[in-house]
Amino acid sequence: CVILDVWAACQDATVTQELLKEGFHRDLLVKVELGVLGEDAGGCAVAARTRLPPGIYVDPYELASLQQHNLTKAVLIPDVIDVEAPEYLATDLLLLLYMEPDPRCSRCFKAALPVHGRYHRPAEESEEALIVLKSPEVLVCCCDNHLSAECWKPAEVEAPCSGKTDSPCQWYSVTHKPAYEESILQVPVGLRQHSSLVCVVTLLATVLCSTLILAAVCKHGHFS
């Protein structure tokens, strides 16, 4: 577990959530600065719990690869996700993102994770869809000690403390002050008046590619 500094009284945590890059493929960056934790807050892990709306998702295969290389630690609920589903057929996801200490600040933690926008229905006017991502909840899990009841409240989290083992551990939620109440993700969407043009171009491209493939097979293929 991450070792936290010991303080004498309770203070709110400060949370900053950013969506980096543009378009459908982004990086979710979460930063947490913990306040004063109390004298019994040694040996704890820190995580951010957030609910991802249907318009945004984490690729479980990409996450598994990142975790295999120790580049991030996270738990997805549910862990089976249809990455091809459009926004209007998808459901919410619960993400528990384990934080790492920030070497530039003794009470600061941060974590980053790739997220992806889903395709939306074509719109009438706007060429962008807005996805609202609420500020995450700050959680702390102590393996050896119990946190002060005045500062922390028990939270129901079905995830191990360290992110590596299945050992049970009690998570606690801390009151926090988000830098922003929500983050807005903008993803491109098509316009309904372009539907006919898109269908025609797609059909022509399909016919052309199929013809080229068939011609190459007939020219270079070996048939018995």
Structural features:
single chain, 2 helices, six-stranded mixed β-sheet, six-stranded antiparallel β-sheet, Immunoglobulin-like, disordered N terminus, 224 residues, alpha+beta
What's the Cα radius of gyration?
A: 23 Å
The percentage of residues in β strands lies in: 35-45%
**What is the architecture of the largest domain at the second tier of CATH?**
Sandwich
User: Could you name the CATH topology of the largest domain?
Assistant: Immunoglobulin-like
Overall pLDDT score: 79
Helix content: 10-25%
Q: Main sheet, how many strands, which sense, barrel?
A: 6 strands, mixed
Query: Would you state the CATH class of the largest domain?
Result: Mainly Beta
Overall strand count: 14
Total DSSP helices: 2
Shape: elongated
Class from helix and strand fractions:
alpha+beta
Low-confidence stretches: 1-9, 38-42
Give the oligomer, counting copies of the same chain as homo and different chains as hetero.
Answer: single chain
Element layout with pairings:
Layout: E1 13-20, E2 25-33, E3 44-52, E4 56-57, H1 60-68, E5 74-77, E6 93-98, E7 100-101, E8 108-117, E9 128-134, E10 137-142, E11 152-155, E12 171-174, E13 176-178, E14 182-188, H2 195-220
Parallel strand pairs: 1-13
Antiparallel strand pairs: 1-2, 2-8, 3-6, 3-10, 4-8, 5-6, 7-8, 9-14, 10-12, 11-12
Concise account of the structure shown:
By secondary structure, this protein is an alpha+beta fold.
Question: How is this structure best described in words?
Answer:
By secondary structure, this protein is α+β, with helices and mostly antiparallel strands. The chain has two domains: 13-190, Immunoglobulin-like (Sandwich); 191-223. The chain is built from two helices and 14 strands; from the N terminus they run E-E-E-E-H-E-E-E-E-E-E-E-E-E-E-H. Strands 1, 2, 4, 7, 8 and 13 form a six-stranded mixed sheet that branches. A six-stranded antiparallel sheet has the order 5-6-3-10-12-11, covered by helices on one side. InterPro entries: PIG-X/PBN1, PIGX. It comes from Spizaetus tyrannus. Keywords: Endoplasmic reticulum, Glycoprotein, GPI-anchor biosynthesis, Membrane, Transmembrane, Transmembrane helix. Pathway: Glycolipid biosynthesis; glycosylphosphatidylinositol-anchor biosynthesis.
